[in-house]
Amino acid sequence: MKLRSIVWIVAVVIFSLVAAGGAVGAEKKDPLAAWKPNFDPSGAQYTYLVSNVSHPVIEGVAAGYRIRDAVWAKSGGRLYVDYRPLSQLGGEKDVIRKLKMGAIQGMLCSSVVAANVGHKLGIVNLPFVVDTFDKLDKLRNTPELYEPFKNCALAEGLMVVDITGYGTYGWATTTPVANLADAGNVNFRIAQAPVNKDTYQAWGLKFTVMPWPDVPQALQTGVITGLDHTPIVCNITKKFEVAKYFTEVNYAQGLFIHLMNKKWYDKLPKDLQQVLIQVIEEESANTRELTKQQQVAQMDAAKAKGIKFFQLSAEDKNTLTQKSQPVIDSWREKIGPEYLDKVMATLEK
User: In this structure, are 276 and 331 located in the same domain?
Assistant: First the structure.
């Protein structure tokens, strides 16, 4: 075969491979296609750029899009909420820095990271303090409890506007965990958050602090054998494909705390300030109800796929509660003794 023919054949093959690769790339679906706005935001006078790390199939995350659409309608197209979930603007710690500088204006921050912004925000992660949906509602709807929580980040230049959630924390595991003895054999992945680390040390359980993107491979390879998270997140993100058991510890509520740059907010016209805050509060309240429903639905869906659920005995839960006391004591001064005691006493009524 002549050299020219060989070169021509090689060129054709290379072109075909490149074209095929381009076709495959073109076929990739936009994971956020279903949430694109049905309006043209280019004419907005003001833009509110908001970040979140998770996927809007979780109701607490989808709240950002509902806020976007309602603000657009109620502001007559003057204010556009440019919502960017799925870590489009970076990881949470990086986004918090950008938020403080004003490079972005808002974020729905996970509660496990929020304690780094203001110590009072860490109260929602303390074990067995805000551990039910009812207690969360009481915290949010009781002014003497919510106002200190809401104002605790002002020194950092940030406002706490409202809260949404992603369910109640427990353990997804690769082996059954029906009691604390079983839990002693598990290596749990926990978030990169100070309250969580303190809690697992107090409980005397083996744990590994690990970034969320590393979890799937770690579960599959056995580097970790358990996951500290909520059934909503575990089912939606397919963690139950490997960890086929879930223990309902129910020790804390997972939240997204809506943080806003105060300097940016203060420069917004008064009527748009009112629209933005009103919409965020209305949609956040609606989302908290949707989250309750989503948790039931996701647990039912997981059970239908064969995931086995366990509940700890009253004795085991009491043991965890007692072991949690040093964590609460160590955070008392950071959060404020009077405030922490008031929250705990009020929520237990």
Answer: no
Structural domain for 93, as ranges:
33-166+256-302
Phi/psi-derived region of residue 219, left when phi > 0, alpha when psi is between -120 and 50, beta in every other case: alpha
The secondary element (H helix, E strand) that includes residue 105 is none
Report the mean per-residue pLDDT for the chain: 92
Residue 13 lies in a domain: no
**Percent of the chain beyond pLDDT 90?**
87
Residue 279, C-beta contacts closer than 8 angstroms, at least 6 positions apart: 67, 70, 71, 74
Q: pLDDT at position 27, please?
A: 53
Mean pLDDT on 123-136:
96
Q: β-strand 253-261 against 106-110: which pairing, if any? A: antiparallel
Q: Is the confidence at residue 5, as pLDDT, over 80?
A: no
Q: From the CB of residue 275, how many other CB atoms can be counted at a distance below 10 Å?
A: 21
**Please, are residues 130 and 328 in contact by the beta-carbon 8 Å criterion?**
no
Cα 46 from Cα 267, distance rounded (Å): 10
User: What's the pLDDT band for 29 if we cut at 50, 70, 90?
Assistant: confident
Query: Is residue 148 assigned to a domain?
Result: yes
Q: Taking Cα atoms as reference points, which of 215, 268, 263, 265 lies closest to residue 243? A: 215
H-type helices in the chain, by residue range? 3-27, 59-74, 92-101, 111-114, 133-141, 143-151, 180-183, 194-203, 215-221, 231-236, 262-267, 270-304, 314-323, 325-335, 337-348
**CA 294, CA 290: separation in Å to the nearest integer?**
6
